[in-house]
Protein backbone atom coordinates (compact mmCIF):
# COMPACT_ATOMS: atom_id res chain seq x y z
CA UNK A 1 0.00 0.00 0.00
CA UNK A 2 0.99 3.65 -0.26
CA UNK A 3 1.75 5.64 2.87
CA UNK A 4 3.53 8.75 4.12
CA UNK A 5 6.26 7.57 6.46
CA UNK A 6 8.37 9.54 8.93
CA UNK A 7 11.87 8.05 8.96
CA UNK A 8 13.35 10.74 11.21
CA UNK A 9 12.70 14.35 12.12
CA UNK A 10 12.16 16.14 8.81
CA UNK A 11 12.53 12.93 6.76
CA UNK A 12 8.95 12.44 5.55
CA UNK A 13 8.42 10.22 2.49
CA UNK A 14 5.57 9.01 0.29
CA UNK A 15 6.37 5.35 -0.37
CA UNK A 16 5.14 1.79 -0.63
CA UNK A 17 4.92 -0.26 2.57
CA UNK A 18 3.35 -3.64 3.44
CA UNK A 19 -0.42 -3.64 3.86
CA UNK A 20 -1.28 -4.50 7.49
CA UNK A 21 -3.07 -7.73 8.33
CA UNK A 22 -5.68 -7.50 11.09
CA UNK A 23 -5.04 -9.54 14.23
CA UNK A 24 -7.74 -11.19 16.33
CA UNK A 25 -10.13 -8.51 17.57
CA UNK A 26 -9.16 -6.15 14.74
CA UNK A 27 -10.57 -5.04 11.41
CA UNK A 28 -8.86 -3.70 8.31
CA UNK A 29 -9.88 -0.13 7.59
CA UNK A 30 -9.47 1.36 4.14
CA UNK A 31 -8.66 4.94 5.05
CA UNK A 32 -10.60 7.50 3.05
CA UNK A 33 -9.78 10.76 4.83
CA UNK A 34 -7.17 11.96 7.33
CA UNK A 35 -7.03 15.44 8.79
CA UNK A 36 -3.72 17.13 9.56
CA UNK A 37 -3.45 18.32 13.16
CA UNK A 38 -1.09 21.03 14.35
CA UNK A 39 0.62 18.36 16.44
CA UNK A 40 1.42 16.46 13.22
CA UNK A 41 3.48 19.44 12.02
CA UNK A 42 5.45 19.40 15.27
CA UNK A 43 5.95 15.64 15.05
CA UNK A 44 7.21 15.69 11.47
CA UNK A 45 9.44 18.75 11.63
CA UNK A 46 10.43 19.23 15.30
CA UNK A 47 9.67 16.49 17.83
CA UNK A 48 9.52 13.27 15.88
CA UNK A 49 7.49 10.21 16.75
CA UNK A 50 8.41 7.80 19.55
CA UNK A 51 10.09 5.38 17.15
CA UNK A 52 11.07 5.44 13.48
CA UNK A 53 9.83 4.70 10.93
CA UNK A 54 6.24 5.65 11.81
CA UNK A 55 3.20 6.62 9.74
CA UNK A 56 1.72 9.80 11.32
CA UNK A 57 -1.93 10.81 11.42
CA UNK A 58 -4.53 10.39 14.16
CA UNK A 59 -7.62 12.14 12.71
CA UNK A 60 -8.91 9.58 10.22
CA UNK A 61 -11.92 7.67 8.97
CA UNK A 62 -12.57 4.98 6.43
CA UNK A 63 -14.41 1.91 5.25
CA UNK A 64 -14.13 -1.45 7.01
CA UNK A 65 -13.06 -3.96 4.36
CA UNK A 66 -11.97 -7.03 6.34
CA UNK A 67 -12.14 -8.56 9.82
CA UNK A 68 -9.90 -11.11 11.51
CA UNK A 69 -12.77 -12.79 13.38
CA UNK A 70 -15.97 -14.25 12.03
CA UNK A 71 -18.06 -12.48 14.68
CA UNK A 72 -16.86 -9.12 13.39
CA UNK A 73 -17.44 -9.70 9.69
CA UNK A 74 -20.83 -7.99 9.90
CA UNK A 75 -18.86 -4.76 10.20
CA UNK A 76 -17.47 -5.07 6.67
CA UNK A 77 -18.80 -2.32 4.45
CA UNK A 78 -19.51 0.10 7.31
CA UNK A 79 -18.05 3.57 7.70
CA UNK A 80 -16.09 4.36 10.84
CA UNK A 81 -14.06 6.99 12.60
CA UNK A 82 -11.32 5.79 14.96
CA UNK A 83 -10.54 6.73 18.55
CA UNK A 84 -6.73 6.89 18.22
CA UNK A 85 -5.78 6.07 21.81
CA UNK A 86 -5.07 2.39 22.55
CA UNK A 87 -5.41 2.04 26.34
CA UNK A 88 -3.96 -0.73 28.48
CA UNK A 89 -7.37 -1.43 30.09
CA UNK A 90 -5.67 -2.34 33.38
CA UNK A 91 -4.42 0.86 35.07
CA UNK A 92 -6.51 2.80 37.59
CA UNK A 93 -7.60 5.37 34.98
CA UNK A 94 -8.75 2.71 32.53
CA UNK A 95 -10.67 0.84 35.21
CA UNK A 96 -12.87 3.90 35.76
CA UNK A 97 -13.20 4.64 32.03
CA UNK A 98 -10.83 7.63 31.93
CA UNK A 99 -8.85 6.26 29.01
CA UNK A 100 -7.14 9.56 28.14
CA UNK A 101 -5.25 9.30 31.45
CA UNK A 102 -4.05 5.73 30.80
CA UNK A 103 -0.53 5.27 32.14
CA UNK A 104 0.55 2.64 29.58
CA UNK A 105 -1.09 3.46 26.27
CA UNK A 106 -0.33 3.29 22.56
CA UNK A 107 -1.47 5.91 20.06
CA UNK A 108 -2.10 5.84 16.34
CA UNK A 109 0.16 8.25 14.50
CA UNK A 110 2.80 8.88 17.16
CA UNK A 111 3.51 5.64 19.04
CA UNK A 112 2.40 3.31 16.25
CA UNK A 113 1.42 3.68 12.60
CA UNK A 114 -1.46 6.04 11.94
CA UNK A 115 -3.80 7.31 9.29
CA UNK A 116 -1.63 8.75 6.51
CA UNK A 117 -1.84 5.49 4.60
CA UNK A 118 -4.25 3.56 2.45
CA UNK A 119 -5.01 0.94 5.12
CA UNK A 120 -4.71 0.41 8.86
CA UNK A 121 -5.60 -2.40 11.28
CA UNK A 122 -7.82 -1.17 14.10
CA UNK A 123 -9.21 -2.90 17.22
CA UNK A 124 -12.98 -3.15 17.05
CA UNK A 125 -13.15 -1.36 20.42
CA UNK A 126 -11.67 1.79 18.82
CA UNK A 127 -14.21 1.96 16.00
CA UNK A 128 -16.89 4.66 16.06
CA UNK A 129 -19.43 3.67 13.43
CA UNK A 130 -20.86 6.60 11.49
CA UNK A 131 -24.07 6.94 9.44
CA UNK A 132 -23.90 6.53 5.67
CA UNK A 133 -25.07 10.13 5.30
CA UNK A 134 -21.91 11.45 6.95
CA UNK A 135 -18.95 12.09 4.64
CA UNK A 136 -15.55 10.56 5.33
CA UNK A 137 -14.14 14.08 5.76
CA UNK A 138 -16.68 14.88 8.45
CA UNK A 139 -16.02 11.57 10.17
CA UNK A 140 -12.28 12.32 10.15
CA UNK A 141 -13.02 15.52 12.08
CA UNK A 142 -14.73 13.62 14.89
CA UNK A 143 -11.43 13.55 16.79
CA UNK A 144 -10.86 17.33 17.05
CA UNK A 145 -14.61 17.87 17.50
CA UNK A 146 -14.57 15.51 20.49
CA UNK A 147 -11.49 17.25 21.92
CA UNK A 148 -13.23 20.64 21.65
CA UNK A 149 -16.42 19.33 23.24
CA UNK A 150 -14.45 17.82 26.10
CA UNK A 151 -12.71 21.15 26.80
CA UNK A 152 -16.04 23.01 27.04
CA UNK A 153 -17.44 20.33 29.31
CA UNK A 154 -14.38 20.80 31.52
CA UNK A 155 -15.13 24.54 31.51
CA UNK A 156 -18.68 23.93 32.70
CA UNK A 157 -20.13 26.20 30.01
CA UNK A 158 -23.79 26.94 30.65
CA UNK A 159 -26.71 28.53 28.80
CA UNK A 160 -26.22 32.28 28.53
CA UNK A 161 -22.52 32.14 29.41
CA UNK A 162 -19.77 33.93 27.54
CA UNK A 163 -16.58 32.11 26.59
CA UNK A 164 -13.28 33.60 25.47
CA UNK A 165 -11.38 31.32 23.11
CA UNK A 166 -7.69 32.06 22.59
CA UNK A 167 -6.73 30.62 19.21
CA UNK A 168 -8.91 30.76 16.08
CA UNK A 169 -7.59 27.74 14.22
CA UNK A 170 -9.64 24.58 13.57
CA UNK A 171 -10.00 23.68 17.26
CA UNK A 172 -10.89 27.26 18.16
CA UNK A 173 -13.61 27.32 15.51
CA UNK A 174 -14.92 23.99 16.77
CA UNK A 175 -14.97 25.35 20.32
CA UNK A 176 -16.97 28.35 19.13
CA UNK A 177 -19.34 26.09 17.17
CA UNK A 178 -19.97 23.87 20.17
CA UNK A 179 -20.41 26.93 22.41
CA UNK A 180 -23.23 28.14 20.17
CA UNK A 181 -24.91 24.74 20.33
CA UNK A 182 -24.54 24.67 24.12
CA UNK A 183 -26.36 27.98 24.46
CA UNK A 184 -23.50 30.40 25.02
CA UNK A 185 -24.46 34.06 24.70
CA UNK A 186 -21.05 34.93 23.28
CA UNK A 187 -18.15 32.93 21.85
CA UNK A 188 -15.27 35.39 21.57
CA UNK A 189 -12.45 34.27 19.27
CA UNK A 190 -9.03 35.82 19.88
CA UNK A 191 -5.98 35.44 17.66
CA UNK A 192 -2.93 37.33 16.36
CA UNK A 193 -3.52 36.25 12.75
CA UNK A 194 -5.93 38.57 10.93
CA UNK A 195 -6.46 35.96 8.20
CA UNK A 196 -7.79 33.44 10.71
CA UNK A 197 -10.19 36.02 12.09
CA UNK A 198 -11.43 36.93 8.61
CA UNK A 199 -11.94 33.25 7.84
CA UNK A 200 -13.95 32.96 11.07
CA UNK A 201 -16.00 35.99 10.08
CA UNK A 202 -16.81 34.32 6.78
CA UNK A 203 -18.21 31.37 8.74
CA UNK A 204 -20.56 33.66 10.64
CA UNK A 205 -18.61 34.28 13.85
CA UNK A 206 -18.92 37.91 14.94
CA UNK A 207 -17.10 38.38 18.26
CA UNK A 208 -13.53 38.52 16.96
CA UNK A 209 -10.48 40.11 18.58
CA UNK A 210 -7.10 40.72 16.94
CA UNK A 211 -4.67 40.54 19.86
CA UNK A 212 -2.08 42.53 17.89
CA UNK A 213 -4.31 45.56 17.52
CA UNK A 214 -6.44 45.41 20.67
CA UNK A 215 -5.72 44.28 24.21
CA UNK A 216 -7.64 40.97 24.56
CA UNK A 217 -8.52 41.56 28.20
CA UNK A 218 -9.98 44.98 27.43
CA UNK A 219 -11.81 43.58 24.39
CA UNK A 220 -13.44 40.79 26.39
CA UNK A 221 -14.44 43.27 29.08
CA UNK A 222 -15.99 45.50 26.41
CA UNK A 223 -17.90 42.62 24.84
CA UNK A 224 -19.22 41.43 28.21
CA UNK A 225 -20.14 44.87 29.56
CA UNK A 226 -17.29 44.84 32.05
CA UNK A 227 -18.20 41.49 33.60
CA UNK A 228 -15.57 39.31 32.03
CA UNK A 229 -16.00 35.92 30.41
CA UNK A 230 -17.62 33.14 32.41
CA UNK A 231 -14.95 30.78 31.12
CA UNK A 232 -11.87 31.06 28.94
CA UNK A 233 -10.05 28.45 26.89
CA UNK A 234 -6.30 28.79 26.39
CA UNK A 235 -5.82 27.09 23.03
CA UNK A 236 -2.53 28.59 21.91
CA UNK A 237 -0.10 26.98 24.33
CA UNK A 238 1.50 30.35 25.05
CA UNK A 239 2.29 32.23 28.26
CA UNK A 240 0.73 35.47 27.00
CA UNK A 241 -2.55 33.74 26.17
CA UNK A 242 -2.74 32.07 29.59
CA UNK A 243 -2.08 35.43 31.28
CA UNK A 244 -4.83 37.03 29.23
CA UNK A 245 -7.23 34.22 30.09
CA UNK A 246 -6.65 34.86 33.78
CA UNK A 247 -7.11 38.58 33.22
CA UNK A 248 -10.36 38.44 31.24
CA UNK A 249 -12.26 35.78 33.19
CA UNK A 250 -14.82 36.98 35.73
CA UNK A 251 -14.64 36.30 39.46
CA UNK A 252 -15.20 32.63 40.27
CA UNK A 253 -14.96 31.78 36.57
CA UNK A 254 -13.06 28.94 34.94
CA UNK A 255 -9.91 28.90 32.83
CA UNK A 256 -9.15 25.75 30.85
CA UNK A 257 -5.59 25.11 29.71
CA UNK A 258 -5.83 23.29 26.39
CA UNK A 259 -3.05 24.36 24.01
CA UNK A 260 0.05 22.20 23.61
CA UNK A 261 3.00 24.37 24.76
CA UNK A 262 5.94 24.81 22.39
CA UNK A 263 8.13 26.28 25.14
CA UNK A 264 8.09 27.02 28.87
CA UNK A 265 4.87 28.51 30.25
CA UNK A 266 5.37 31.28 32.80
CA UNK A 267 3.04 33.54 34.76
CA UNK A 268 3.60 37.11 35.91
CA UNK A 269 2.90 38.11 39.49
CA UNK A 270 -0.10 40.12 38.23
CA UNK A 271 -1.63 37.08 36.56
CA UNK A 272 -1.02 34.95 39.61
CA UNK A 273 -2.75 37.55 41.78
CA UNK A 274 -5.74 37.44 39.39
CA UNK A 275 -5.93 33.67 39.87
CA UNK A 276 -5.93 34.11 43.65
CA UNK A 277 -8.05 37.19 44.14
CA UNK A 278 -10.78 36.23 41.69
CA UNK A 279 -10.80 32.67 43.04
CA UNK A 280 -10.60 31.33 39.51
CA UNK A 281 -10.90 27.66 38.71
CA UNK A 282 -7.88 26.61 36.64
CA UNK A 283 -8.05 23.17 35.06
CA UNK A 284 -6.50 21.19 32.27
CA UNK A 285 -8.13 19.23 29.49
CA UNK A 286 -6.62 16.30 27.66
CA UNK A 287 -7.97 14.42 24.67
CA UNK A 288 -11.63 13.42 25.03
CA UNK A 289 -14.00 11.11 26.84
CA UNK A 290 -14.62 7.73 25.21
CA UNK A 291 -16.67 6.18 27.99
CA UNK A 292 -20.47 6.19 28.08
CA UNK A 293 -20.72 7.86 31.49
CA UNK A 294 -21.13 10.74 31.82
CA UNK A 295 -20.89 11.33 28.05
CA UNK A 296 -19.05 9.84 25.09
CA UNK A 297 -17.63 12.91 23.30
CA UNK A 298 -17.11 10.91 20.11
CA UNK A 299 -20.64 9.59 19.74
CA UNK A 300 -22.01 13.02 20.62
CA UNK A 301 -19.85 14.66 17.95
CA UNK A 302 -20.88 12.13 15.31
CA UNK A 303 -24.55 12.51 16.22
CA UNK A 304 -24.50 16.31 16.01
CA UNK A 305 -22.67 16.22 12.68
CA UNK A 306 -25.11 13.64 11.30
CA UNK A 307 -28.06 15.80 12.41
CA UNK A 308 -26.55 18.79 10.60
CA UNK A 309 -26.19 20.78 13.82
CA UNK A 310 -22.38 20.76 13.82
CA UNK A 311 -21.18 21.90 10.40
CA UNK A 312 -17.45 21.27 10.01
CA UNK A 313 -16.85 20.73 6.28
CA UNK A 314 -16.66 24.53 5.69
CA UNK A 315 -13.58 24.56 7.92
CA UNK A 316 -11.59 22.66 5.25
CA UNK A 317 -9.43 24.93 3.12
CA UNK A 318 -7.18 22.33 1.45
CA UNK A 319 -7.90 18.87 0.08
CA UNK A 320 -4.79 16.93 -0.93
CA UNK A 321 -3.97 13.44 -2.15
CA UNK A 322 -1.75 11.16 -0.10
CA UNK A 323 1.08 11.76 -2.58
CA UNK A 324 0.70 15.52 -2.09
CA UNK A 325 0.82 15.21 1.70
CA UNK A 326 4.60 15.82 2.20
CA UNK A 327 4.42 19.02 0.15
CA UNK A 328 1.30 20.02 2.07
CA UNK A 329 3.08 19.68 5.39
CA UNK A 330 5.93 21.83 4.07
CA UNK A 331 3.36 24.48 3.15
CA UNK A 332 1.89 24.30 6.64
CA UNK A 333 5.30 24.46 8.30
CA UNK A 334 6.43 27.45 6.24
CA UNK A 335 2.97 29.10 6.17
CA UNK A 336 3.35 29.93 2.49
CA UNK A 337 -0.45 29.89 2.14
CA UNK A 338 -3.31 30.57 4.47
CA UNK A 339 -4.85 27.33 5.68
CA UNK A 340 -7.36 26.23 8.26
CA UNK A 341 -8.13 22.51 8.06
CA UNK A 342 -6.01 20.48 5.66
CA UNK A 343 -7.58 17.16 4.68
CA UNK A 344 -5.81 14.25 3.01
CA UNK A 345 -8.18 12.21 0.84
CA UNK A 346 -7.63 8.65 -0.30
CA UNK A 347 -10.40 8.47 -2.90
CA UNK A 348 -10.56 5.29 -4.95
Commentary on this structure:
The protein has 348 residues and is an alpha/beta fold. It folds into 2 domains: 2-141 and 312-345, Quinone Oxidoreductase, Chain A, domain 1 (Alpha-Beta Complex), CATH 3.90.180.10; 146-284, NAD(P)-binding Rossmann-like Domain (Rossmann fold, 3-Layer(aba) Sandwich). The chain contains 11 helices and 17 strands. It has helices spanning 38-47, 92-95, 136-140, 142-155, 170-181, 194-202, 216-223, 239-248, 269-277, 297-306, 325-334, and strands spanning 2-8, 11-16, 26-36, 59-67, 79-82, 85-86, 106-107, 119-123, 127-129, 162-166, 186-191, 208-210, 229-234, 249-257, 281-284, 316-321, 341-345. Strands 3, 4, 5, 8, 9, 16 and 17 form a 7-stranded mixed β-sheet that branches. The protein has a 6-stranded parallel β-sheet with strand order 12-11-10-13-14-15, with helices on both faces. A two-stranded antiparallel ribbon has the order 1-2. Strand 13 (229-234), helix 8 (239-248) and strand 14 (249-257) form a beta-alpha-beta unit. Helix 4 crosses helix 5, helix 4 packs across helix 10 (297-306) and helix 7 (216-223) packs parallel to helix 8 (239-248). The protein starts with a strand and ends with a strand. The mean pLDDT is 97.
